[in-house]
Specification:
Strand content: 35-45%
Structural class: mainly beta
CATH class: Mainly Beta
Number of strands: 13
CATH architecture: Sandwich
Distance between the termini: 28 Å
Largest sheet: 8 strands, mixed
CATH superfamily: Galactose-binding domain-like
Number of domains: 1
Order of helices and strands: HEEEEEEEEEEEEE
């Protein structure tokens, strides 16, 4: 009986592994410092200088997972921060996917204290937004909450981009905190 279970496990292992897309540095680990893009991520907007927290800018909330997390801001001049990365394998056209990440807001992010939304984009090329995959509600809570969402990939996307978003493209001086991104999994596995 044990050999049969063992054989069945290895028979389905390639399917299980192939239906997960790994995110590099999903908890934005790094030495806390301002104006630093976490390892594995790249800046996607001019002026993107995310912060690895806690510590800089008066933000001392504990991470939801690991030792650090990332903060993104929007500015009074209408600019905003966004980061992206090449996926370990592309999102396939016509497939449904599910993803989780933890979000919070800081009331003490020196001068950037307004709540924001988070947007997630699929992209064909580095930092070239092709399709909006998710827009969070306004994140105005200071405790970490997990946001789970599903999306249909209308085309094959090789990159994922996450950005701080001020509602109605306003000129808010705001922040959003991001931590603990899961693997992107096929909806068939949910």
């Amino acid at each position: 009986m044990g050999i049969i279970r063992f054989s069945i496990f290895f028979l389905f292992l390639p399917f299980v592994l192939s239906s997960q897309i790994r995110i590099e540095n999903p908890s934005f680990e790094g030495s806390p410092q301002d104006a630093t893009v976490p390892t594995g991520w790249m800046p996607c907007e001019d002026g993107t200088t995310p912060d690895i927290l806690p510590g800089p800018w008066g933000v001392y909330q504990e991470p939801s997972e690991g030792d650090s997390y990332m903060g993104l801001i929007t500015r009074a001049d209408g600019t905003y921060e966004s980061v992206g990365q090449r996926l370990s394998e592309p999102l396939k056209k016509g497939e449904c996917y599910s993803w989780n990440l933890d979000l919070a807001h800081s009331n003490t992010y020196t001068g950037y204290n307004q709540p924001l939304k988070l947007r997630v984009w699929g992209a064909y090329n580095r930092c070239q937004k092709a399709a909006l995959l998710y827009e969070s509600p306004l994140i105005d809570h200071t405790d970490w909450q997990t946001y789970s969402f599903s999306f249909l990939s209308k085309f094959e996307y090789h990159y994922l981009i996450i950005e701080a978003y001020a509602p109605d493209h306003s000129t808010l001086r705001g922040n959003i905190l991001i931590d603990n991104c899961s693997k992107i999994i096929s909806c068939k596995r949910v």
